Amino acid sequence: MKAIVVLISGNGSNLQTIIDGCANGSIPGYITGVIANKANAYGLKRAVAANIPTTVISHKDYQDRQQYDAVLKEAILQYGAELIVLAGFMRILTPEFVQFFSGKLLNIHPSLLPKYQGLDTHQRAIDAGDAEHGCSVHFVTEQLDGGPVVLQAKVPIFPGDDASMVAARVHEQEHLIYPLVVRWFCQNRLQQRANEAWLDGLLLSVQGYA
Ligand code: GAR
Protein backbone atom coordinates (compact mmCIF):
# COMPACT_ATOMS: atom_id res chain seq x y z
CA MET A 1 0.00 0.00 0.00
CA LYS A 2 1.52 3.28 -1.07
CA ALA A 3 1.04 6.64 0.60
CA ILE A 4 -0.32 9.13 -1.92
CA VAL A 5 -0.47 12.91 -1.68
CA VAL A 6 -2.72 14.71 -4.16
CA LEU A 7 -2.18 18.34 -5.16
CA ILE A 8 -5.13 20.32 -6.49
CA SER A 9 -6.21 23.85 -7.39
CA GLY A 10 -9.87 23.40 -8.20
CA ASN A 11 -12.79 21.06 -8.63
CA GLY A 12 -10.89 17.87 -7.87
CA SER A 13 -12.90 15.48 -10.03
CA ASN A 14 -9.68 13.59 -10.78
CA LEU A 15 -8.92 13.54 -7.07
CA GLN A 16 -12.35 11.97 -6.58
CA THR A 17 -11.52 9.09 -8.90
CA ILE A 18 -8.38 8.37 -6.89
CA ILE A 19 -10.27 8.60 -3.60
CA ASP A 20 -12.79 6.14 -5.04
CA GLY A 21 -10.07 3.82 -6.39
CA CYS A 22 -8.39 3.65 -3.00
CA ALA A 23 -11.72 3.07 -1.29
CA ASN A 24 -12.82 0.24 -3.59
CA GLY A 25 -9.42 -1.47 -3.54
CA SER A 26 -8.56 -1.03 -7.21
CA ILE A 27 -5.67 1.25 -6.18
CA PRO A 28 -3.43 -0.40 -3.58
CA GLY A 29 -2.76 2.86 -1.81
CA TYR A 30 -4.19 5.43 0.53
CA ILE A 31 -4.28 9.21 0.33
CA THR A 32 -2.50 10.65 3.35
CA GLY A 33 -3.18 14.26 2.42
CA VAL A 34 -4.60 16.66 -0.13
CA ILE A 35 -2.82 19.96 -0.63
CA ALA A 36 -4.35 22.93 -2.43
CA ASN A 37 -2.92 26.30 -3.35
CA LYS A 38 -6.40 27.82 -3.15
CA ALA A 39 -8.54 27.79 -0.01
CA ASN A 40 -11.75 27.66 -2.07
CA ALA A 41 -10.74 24.64 -4.16
CA TYR A 42 -13.84 22.41 -4.21
CA GLY A 43 -11.61 19.34 -4.10
CA LEU A 44 -10.85 20.14 -0.46
CA LYS A 45 -14.51 19.38 0.34
CA ARG A 46 -14.18 16.04 -1.42
CA ALA A 47 -11.15 15.23 0.73
CA VAL A 48 -12.91 16.22 3.95
CA ALA A 49 -15.91 14.09 2.98
CA ALA A 50 -13.53 11.14 2.66
CA ASN A 51 -11.84 11.89 6.00
CA ILE A 52 -8.57 12.83 4.32
CA PRO A 53 -6.42 15.53 5.96
CA THR A 54 -6.06 18.73 3.95
CA THR A 55 -3.56 21.57 3.82
CA VAL A 56 -3.88 24.90 2.04
CA ILE A 57 -0.64 26.56 1.02
CA SER A 58 -1.57 29.76 -0.78
CA HIS A 59 0.93 30.94 -3.34
CA LYS A 60 -0.06 34.48 -2.40
CA ASP A 61 1.70 34.09 0.95
CA TYR A 62 5.13 33.55 -0.62
CA GLN A 63 7.42 35.90 -2.50
CA ASP A 64 8.67 33.51 -5.12
CA ARG A 65 8.42 29.98 -6.44
CA GLN A 66 11.48 28.80 -4.51
CA GLN A 67 9.93 29.76 -1.18
CA TYR A 68 6.57 28.33 -2.12
CA ASP A 69 8.00 25.04 -3.31
CA ALA A 70 10.17 24.68 -0.19
CA VAL A 71 7.05 24.86 1.99
CA LEU A 72 5.15 22.58 -0.35
CA LYS A 73 7.97 20.04 -0.23
CA GLU A 74 7.92 20.00 3.59
CA ALA A 75 4.15 19.48 3.65
CA ILE A 76 4.46 16.57 1.23
CA LEU A 77 7.22 15.01 3.33
CA GLN A 78 5.09 15.43 6.47
CA TYR A 79 2.40 13.38 4.75
CA GLY A 80 4.97 10.66 4.06
CA ALA A 81 4.26 10.63 0.33
CA GLU A 82 5.53 7.79 -1.80
CA LEU A 83 3.61 9.14 -4.79
CA ILE A 84 2.59 12.73 -5.56
CA VAL A 85 -0.38 13.09 -7.89
CA LEU A 86 -0.91 16.47 -9.54
CA ALA A 87 -4.64 16.64 -10.25
CA GLY A 88 -5.39 20.01 -11.74
CA PHE A 89 -2.64 21.67 -9.72
CA MET A 90 -2.16 24.86 -11.71
CA ARG A 91 1.32 25.81 -10.56
CA ILE A 92 4.65 25.57 -12.31
CA LEU A 93 7.10 23.70 -10.09
CA THR A 94 10.75 24.64 -9.65
CA PRO A 95 13.50 22.36 -11.01
CA GLU A 96 14.72 21.76 -7.42
CA PHE A 97 11.29 20.52 -6.38
CA VAL A 98 10.88 18.30 -9.43
CA GLN A 99 14.35 16.80 -9.03
CA PHE A 100 13.77 16.08 -5.35
CA PHE A 101 10.64 14.05 -6.06
CA SER A 102 11.80 12.70 -9.41
CA GLY A 103 10.15 9.39 -10.31
CA LYS A 104 7.31 9.97 -7.85
CA LEU A 105 5.49 12.84 -9.56
CA LEU A 106 2.57 12.21 -11.89
CA ASN A 107 0.51 14.81 -13.74
CA ILE A 108 -2.52 14.78 -15.98
CA HIS A 109 -2.67 17.21 -18.85
CA PRO A 110 -5.70 17.89 -21.07
CA SER A 111 -4.10 17.32 -24.46
CA LEU A 112 -2.43 14.67 -26.53
CA LEU A 113 1.11 15.61 -25.53
CA PRO A 114 3.42 16.77 -26.99
CA LYS A 115 0.64 18.82 -28.58
CA TYR A 116 -0.77 21.80 -26.69
CA GLN A 117 1.42 22.11 -23.65
CA GLY A 118 0.30 24.90 -21.32
CA LEU A 119 -3.17 26.41 -21.02
CA ASP A 120 -6.40 26.64 -23.05
CA THR A 121 -5.74 23.30 -24.69
CA HIS A 122 -9.33 22.59 -25.73
CA GLN A 123 -9.82 25.92 -27.51
CA ARG A 124 -6.44 25.62 -29.18
CA ALA A 125 -7.31 22.17 -30.53
CA ILE A 126 -10.64 23.51 -31.88
CA ASP A 127 -8.96 26.57 -33.41
CA ALA A 128 -6.41 24.34 -35.13
CA GLY A 129 -9.23 22.36 -36.73
CA ASP A 130 -8.16 19.13 -35.05
CA ALA A 131 -10.52 16.18 -35.39
CA GLU A 132 -9.10 14.59 -32.23
CA HIS A 133 -8.09 15.75 -28.79
CA GLY A 134 -7.46 14.00 -25.51
CA CYS A 135 -5.49 13.77 -22.31
CA SER A 136 -2.13 12.45 -21.15
CA VAL A 137 -0.81 11.14 -17.85
CA HIS A 138 2.92 11.70 -17.59
CA PHE A 139 5.79 11.76 -15.17
CA VAL A 140 6.82 15.28 -14.27
CA THR A 141 10.25 16.51 -15.27
CA GLU A 142 11.77 19.96 -15.31
CA GLN A 143 10.28 20.51 -18.75
CA LEU A 144 6.77 21.90 -18.38
CA ASP A 145 4.28 19.29 -19.65
CA GLY A 146 7.29 17.57 -21.21
CA GLY A 147 7.92 14.49 -19.06
CA PRO A 148 7.55 10.94 -20.37
CA VAL A 149 3.98 10.01 -21.20
CA VAL A 150 2.52 6.93 -19.49
CA LEU A 151 -0.96 6.76 -20.99
CA GLN A 152 -3.18 8.81 -23.29
CA ALA A 153 -6.83 8.75 -24.26
CA LYS A 154 -8.31 10.27 -27.41
CA VAL A 155 -11.69 11.87 -27.96
CA PRO A 156 -13.27 13.20 -31.15
CA ILE A 157 -13.88 16.88 -31.79
CA PHE A 158 -17.13 17.34 -33.70
CA PRO A 159 -18.00 20.31 -35.93
CA GLY A 160 -19.69 22.97 -33.80
CA ASP A 161 -18.16 21.82 -30.52
CA ASP A 162 -17.20 24.54 -28.11
CA ALA A 163 -14.37 24.25 -25.58
CA SER A 164 -16.66 23.22 -22.71
CA MET A 165 -18.12 20.34 -24.75
CA VAL A 166 -14.66 19.09 -25.62
CA ALA A 167 -13.47 19.57 -22.04
CA ALA A 168 -16.36 17.44 -20.75
CA ARG A 169 -15.46 14.66 -23.19
CA VAL A 170 -11.81 14.84 -22.16
CA HIS A 171 -12.68 14.83 -18.47
CA GLU A 172 -14.57 11.54 -18.86
CA GLN A 173 -11.41 9.95 -20.22
CA GLU A 174 -9.20 11.53 -17.56
CA HIS A 175 -11.35 9.80 -14.96
CA LEU A 176 -10.55 6.46 -16.58
CA ILE A 177 -6.84 6.79 -17.25
CA TYR A 178 -5.59 8.60 -14.15
CA PRO A 179 -6.73 6.04 -11.56
CA LEU A 180 -5.41 3.29 -13.83
CA VAL A 181 -1.93 4.82 -13.94
CA VAL A 182 -1.98 5.45 -10.18
CA ARG A 183 -2.94 1.79 -9.74
CA TRP A 184 0.04 0.67 -11.84
CA PHE A 185 2.39 2.87 -9.85
CA CYS A 186 1.07 1.58 -6.53
CA GLN A 187 1.45 -1.98 -7.80
CA ASN A 188 5.16 -1.23 -8.39
CA ARG A 189 4.68 -1.87 -12.09
CA LEU A 190 5.44 1.63 -13.34
CA GLN A 191 8.77 3.41 -13.24
CA GLN A 192 10.34 6.55 -14.60
CA ARG A 193 13.88 6.04 -15.84
CA ALA A 194 15.31 9.41 -16.89
CA ASN A 195 13.05 10.54 -19.74
CA GLU A 196 11.35 7.21 -20.18
CA ALA A 197 8.29 5.58 -18.63
CA TRP A 198 8.33 1.78 -18.14
CA LEU A 199 5.45 -0.56 -17.34
CA ASP A 200 6.12 -4.18 -16.41
CA GLY A 201 9.64 -3.79 -17.80
CA LEU A 202 8.36 -2.49 -21.16
CA LEU A 203 9.21 0.92 -22.50
CA LEU A 204 6.07 3.02 -22.87
CA SER A 205 7.44 6.19 -24.39
CA VAL A 206 10.51 8.15 -25.25
CA GLN A 207 10.64 11.83 -24.41
CA GLY A 208 10.51 13.94 -27.55
CA TYR A 209 9.52 11.08 -29.82
CA ALA A 210 6.34 11.92 -31.68
C1 GAR B 1 -8.11 18.51 -15.66
O1 GAR B 1 -8.76 18.62 -16.89
C2 GAR B 1 -6.61 18.42 -15.86
O2 GAR B 1 -6.25 17.75 -17.02
C3 GAR B 1 -6.22 19.87 -15.91
O3 GAR B 1 -7.02 20.49 -14.95
C4 GAR B 1 -8.26 19.80 -14.86
C5 GAR B 1 -8.57 19.56 -13.41
O4 GAR B 1 -9.85 19.03 -13.25
N1 GAR B 1 -4.83 20.05 -15.65
C6 GAR B 1 -4.08 20.97 -16.25
O5 GAR B 1 -4.52 21.76 -17.06
C7 GAR B 1 -2.63 20.96 -15.84
N2 GAR B 1 -1.86 21.77 -16.73
P1 GAR B 1 -10.33 18.49 -11.83
O6 GAR B 1 -9.98 19.57 -10.80
O7 GAR B 1 -11.80 18.31 -11.95
O8 GAR B 1 -9.61 17.21 -11.56
From TrEMBL:
<dbReference type="InterPro" id="IPR002376">
    <property type="entry name" value="Formyl_transf_N"/>
</dbReference>
<keyword id="KW-0808">Transferase</keyword>
<feature type="binding site">
    <location>
        <position position="107"/>
    </location>
    <ligand>
        <name>(6R)-10-formyltetrahydrofolate</name>
    </ligand>
</feature>
<feature type="binding site">
    <location>
        <begin position="12"/>
        <end position="14"/>
    </location>
    <ligand>
        <name>N(1)-(5-phospho-beta-D-ribosyl)glycinamide</name>
    </ligand>
</feature>
<feature type="binding site">
    <location>
        <position position="65"/>
    </location>
    <ligand>
        <name>(6R)-10-formyltetrahydrofolate</name>
    </ligand>
</feature>
<comment type="pathway">
    <text>Purine metabolism; IMP biosynthesis via de novo pathway; N(2)-formyl-N(1)-(5-phospho-D-ribosyl)glycinamide from N(1)-(5-phospho-D-ribosyl)glycinamide (10-formyl THF route): step 1/1.</text>
</comment>
<dbReference type="Pfam" id="PF00551">
    <property type="entry name" value="Formyl_trans_N"/>
</dbReference>
<protein>
    <recommendedName>
        <fullName>Phosphoribosylglycinamide formyltransferase</fullName>
        <ecNumber>2.1.2.2</ecNumber>
    </recommendedName>
</protein>
<dbReference type="InterPro" id="IPR036477">
    <property type="entry name" value="Formyl_transf_N_sf"/>
</dbReference>
<feature type="active site" description="Proton donor">
    <location>
        <position position="109"/>
    </location>
</feature>
<dbReference type="InterPro" id="IPR001555">
    <property type="entry name" value="GART_AS"/>
</dbReference>
<feature type="site" description="Raises pKa of active site His">
    <location>
        <position position="145"/>
    </location>
</feature>
<feature type="domain" description="Formyl transferase N-terminal">
    <location>
        <begin position="3"/>
        <end position="182"/>
    </location>
</feature>
<comment type="similarity">
    <text>Belongs to the GART family.</text>
</comment>
<feature type="binding site">
    <location>
        <begin position="90"/>
        <end position="93"/>
    </location>
    <ligand>
        <name>(6R)-10-formyltetrahydrofolate</name>
    </ligand>
</feature>
<dbReference type="InterPro" id="IPR004607">
    <property type="entry name" value="GART"/>
</dbReference>
<comment type="function">
    <text>Catalyzes the transfer of a formyl group from 10-formyltetrahydrofolate to 5-phospho-ribosyl-glycinamide (GAR), producing 5-phospho-ribosyl-N-formylglycinamide (FGAR) and tetrahydrofolate.</text>
</comment>
<keyword id="KW-0658">Purine biosynthesis</keyword>
